[in-house]
Design goal:
Length: 339
């Protein structure tokens, strides 16, 4: 039996490098040097980038350069298996360079396509810098939307989770000015149905109970502080309840995130990015995972950004990446069990 055959049942997880000038390379190295994962981990990156960062951080991994995903063997801490993707130009720590945007996008494309065609069982994405990618002229608002387009998914849902809390979003990377118009009966229904479906199928929750935030202060105060609840949110929730979805709300977002509600629900649904994520990050920054629901592939990510200020310093916390990798492994094992 070859080494590959012996390890065949373990999922193959693609890990992209993220923004090369940021902390992506640091946390990949640190996580994989200090913890063994029961999976075959394939880093999609330029080996030169990772080797230079390892040297800067004083780390000496056992490098394996592979030519295809199936050559990866069970991960052991200290080993880094790389499926090479070349940088466009050498990357300097802490210096964003738009010339490397195509490299970043290529790592995501290879990972996403590899998941779609079965080479990988899941993809884990360290952080990219959205601004530098947009400077190339592509509209990149986030991995969530990138993988939605790549997979032609009708509806995706961004959900961040810690052991204590799951927070999903109705709108993702949208200017605040556009949030109200984006909350319609159709969009809210699609998000809630996708969330309800994946909480059942990907998290094994038989009958998910979902807390829904209002959009306005005090959930609109009976229309005195905004009409979106009365015009859109309440009628949509009522209809979905009649269809069997277990929904509570809309509740005022300022008090929804308290144990009285959270302790008796499976997930909170916030109307926009900064309504839900600050609470989640306050409660568990560094230990949370970002999961894209609604995709035909498994994709997890970290709860933080590129932290350019920390790249190459050895002070970046790898906790969220470890959680993201472990979640991807668990979800991939679960999917294999049910396939
Ligand atoms: N998953 C992703 O790809 C992702 C997630 C969030 C933000 N971003 C992008 O990252 C870039 C920078 O965003 P930002 O400045 O708002 O957020 P950030 O998370 O990069 O930084 C916010 C603060 O948290 C600190 N920090 C972040 N990660 C840390 C870690 N692992 N260990 C210790 N400290 C850490 C930083 O030093 C900084 O003080 C933006 O372009 C943003 O779009 C990407
Ligand atoms: N909204 C996420 C966060 O604040 O952590 C982050 O921007 C990542 O989004 P994507 O996974 O879509 O890149």
């Amino acid at each position: 039996m070859t080494r590959q055959d012996e390890n065949k049942p373990l999922p193959i997880i693609a890990i992209t490098s993220g923004e090369p000038a940021g902390i992506g390379p640091d946390i990949i190295l640190s996580a994989l040097m200090t913890q063994s994962f029961a999976a075959r981990l394939v880093i999609l990156a330029d080996p030169i980038l990772l080797q230079a960062r390892a040297k800067q951080l004083g780390l000496v991994p056992n490098w394996e350069i592979i030519q295809s995903a199936d050559q990866a063997v069970t991960h052991q801490k200290g080993t880094i298996s790389i499926l090479p993707i070349e940088l466009a130009t050498p990357s300097e720590v802490g210096q964003l360079n738009v010339a490397n945007a195509p490299y970043v996008l290529k790592t995501l494309e290879v990972a996403g396509q590899g998941c779609l065609n079965g080479d990988f069982d899941a993809v884990v994405t360290p952080p990219v810098h959205k601004g530098v990618l947009c400077e190339t002229g592509v509209h990149f608002s986030g991995h969530t939307e990138f993988f939605q387009a790549l997979c032609h998914s009708e509806q995706v849902v961004m959900m961040l989770a810690t052991d204590a809390m799951k927070v999903a979003l109705v709108t993702t990377h949208l200017p605040l000015q556009q949030v109200s118009q984006a909350i319609t009966d159709e969009s809210l229904s699609l998000v809630i149905n996708a969330l309800n479906h994946d909480l059942k199928t990907k998290f094994g929750i038989a009958s998910p109970k979902i807390l829904v935030c209002g959009l306005n202060p005090h959930a609109g105060e009976d229309g005195h502080l905004g009409m979106e609840e009365i015009d859109v949110i309440i009628p949509t929730l009522d209809r979905l309840r009649n269809e069997g979805v277990d929904l509570i709300g809309p509740l005022p977002a300022d008090t929804l995130f308290t144990p009285k509600y959270l302790d008796h629900a499976d997930c909170a649904l916030a109307m926009y990015h900064d309504q839900g994520l600050p609470v989640l990050k306050y409660s568990g920054f560094g230990n949370a995972v970002n999961i894209t629901l609604g995709l035909p592939i498994i994709r997890t990510s970290v709860d933080h950004g590129t932290a350019i200020d920390l790249a190459g310093t050895g002070t970046a916390n790898d906790g969220s990446l470890k959680v993201a990798i472990q979640h991807a492994i668990n979800m991939a094992n679960n999917a294999k069990k049910h396939s």
